[in-house]
Amino acid sequence: xxxxxxxxxxxxxxxxxxxxxxxxxxxxxxxxxxxxxxxxxxxxxxxxxxxxxxxxxxxxxxxxxxxxxxxxxxxxxxxxxxxxxxxxxxxxxxxxx
Length: 97
Fold this sequence. Notes:
The chain is 38% helix and 30% strand. By secondary structure, the protein is an alpha+beta fold. The two termini are 15 Å apart. The model has no long low-confidence stretch (mean pLDDT 95).
């Protein structure tokens, strides 16, 4: 069953442009990762340092495998240097209504 994952990020103001470039370069690999159906990123209009990713994955396990891969490559550690607060992952299942 597909899972929707949200990721809330708060980026340091002085590093926001650099972070956006890093994301621009990295998102194609995310979208190409096995099990990834889509990833969209949104920016808060009133607080530009707040970013919100909405990801659709084949399963929670696929997304967790992706995160493990990013940790192995050092990308997660690098991303951490941009953060002003801890990231928040939330996993959702669609209700059949």
